[in-house]
Design brief:
There is one protein chain. Helices cover 70% and strands 0% of the residues. The protein has one domain. By secondary structure, it is an all-alpha fold.
């Protein structure tokens, strides 16, 4: 039984998670950065092969991408709902 992600699975998971957080953002610059990060993570996934096995750098970049995107999203949501007081559900605005 595996207890950890394999690096190739981790790269794909990070790519999907990061681009999803970018889609949910209201900041266009964050969306562009997450799209670029997803592209780079996908390229990293594509370089893993029998001749070029996964390394610690691949895993570190995936973990760092997830952490940075999650932290930025938490910051953005905190500002949106706590600082500016916008309602969580859009139908509350009517």
């Amino acid at each position: 039984m595996r207890h950890r992600f394999e690096v190739n699975e981790l790269l794909l998971t990070a790519a999907i998670y990061v681009v999803t957080l970018g889609f949910a953002s209201e900041w266009r610059s964050f969306y562009v950065l997450t799209t670029l990060a997803t592209f780079l993570l996908s390229v990293s996934y594509g370089t893993i092969s029998e001749q070029n096995p996964a390394t610690v750098v691949h895993a570190s970049s995936a973990y760092a991408s997830i952490a940075i995107a999650a932290a930025w999203t938490a910051f953005e949501r905190y500002r949106r709902y706590m600082v500016y007081g916008r309602p969580f559900f859009e139908w509350e605005q009517r």
